[in-house]
Amino acid sequence: MAILKPSFVRPIVLTLVGVLMINLIGFGLHLALGKPVTLIIDGETTTTRLVSGNVGVVFLKNDITLQPGDLVSHDITETVTTDMVITIEYSRPIDLTLNGQRGTYWTNSASVNSLIDDLGLAEASIKVSPNRQAQIPREGMAVTIETGHDIVLTADGTTQTVHGYGTVRTALNDLGIIWGEDDIITPDPSSMLADELAVTIIRVRHETITRQAPIPFEINNTKDPAQPLGKVSVSIPGVNGLKDQTVVVTFHDGEVFVEKVIAEEVLTEPVTQVQTTGSKPPDVLANVSPGSAQAIAYDMVKARGWSDAEFQCLVNLWQRESGWRTTAGNKKSGAYGIPQALPGSKMASAGPDWQTNPATQIKWGLGYISKRYGTPCGAWNSFLAKGWY
């Protein structure tokens, strides 16, 4: 191996020093002569310099990595110019829950407050978590937003319009309203609020009581063909029994809603009533005077499909009630007309001439009998038992 003489060492050292000086001068020139570029990234401003190249070179120099959805003011192939301003707004995934609906929402907003603007909710009444001033990291975050609504709340005897957010449950909790597990809330507490939504709370309470109650007596009835139809003869009167009951009473808003008997104890047994009821049909009238009230009634009875026996029951009934007079009135009770309607003005439903027209009165009277007793004989039997029908 040859050994260099000292005379050759100095030029090599000088050459290395020269190269180093040239590089340092070049770096200084780069700093001095590079074009200033302003970077505004998510609202934060920094300055860099570049001698030559495009926007992509600026990103490489400053370790800027872009992702789909990022907003950039200049194309990466665009040549850098002096005092160029490059703006970048990074895209961020938001795990967004809006009024109970959850999904991923991509935004270029850097803060929750800006996100609210982006969603078009800046002017809305909303409840948001986290804080509006919170910054959104590039990797995103979870945000919950509930819009406010005026609802109509009925609870504890009052109805009022209140402002709430999110679900029925959330609104009631925010209002400090406490409810029991048996209370009935409509709609379901998980329902989302809506403007003018009617929300009702029914307070439910259960109470166990003991009481005595009658045991109704049974009736042993035998038909007696020798007695007039409907006549009741009692040989052994019935007597109600008595029992103790344990009852669970359910109250809705303080009013009894339902009762459930959970236990009973018989104290005295009831006594069965023994009776006979006449089954002998009444004698049927052979004739009625043409044009009379009874003749009108006969035609109406037959039109309803009732028998002559039913007509005879009707004759007997209204003979006892009014003597078949259209103007028969009871000053004490106010009953009026052939059927003794109480009050007489009820017959106006059958016609305006109810005070004088027998056909109008009979039409109303037969309708009343049909609805309440089924047939004239049913009404007559009731009259025989009670003295009225």
Describe the structure.
- By secondary structure, this protein is an alpha+beta fold.
- It is built from 8 helices and 17 strands.
- It has helices spanning 6-33, 55-61, 112-118, 168-174, 293-303, 308-321, 358-372, 376-386; strands at 35-41, 44-50, 71-72, 84-89, 92-98, 101-107, 126-129, 141-155, 158-165, 184-186, 198-202, 204-215, 219-228, 232-236, 241-252, 255-268, 273-280.
- The strands form 4 sheets. Strands 5, 6, 7, 8, 9, 10 and 11 form a 7-stranded mixed sheet that branches. A 4-stranded mixed sheet has the order 2-1-4-3.
- A hairpin with a 2-residue loop joins strand 8 and strand 9 (158-165).
- The radius of gyration is 50 Å and the shape is elongated.
- The chain starts with 5 loop residues before the first helix and ends with a helix.
Question: How far is the N terminus from the C terminus?
Answer: 147 Å
Please state the CA-atom Rg, rounded to the nearest Å: 50 Å
| pLDDT averaged residue by residue | 88
User: In percent terms, what proportion of residues is strand?
Assistant: 25-35%
Shape: elongated
Main beta-sheet annotation: 7 strands, mixed
Q: How many β-strand stretches?
A: 17
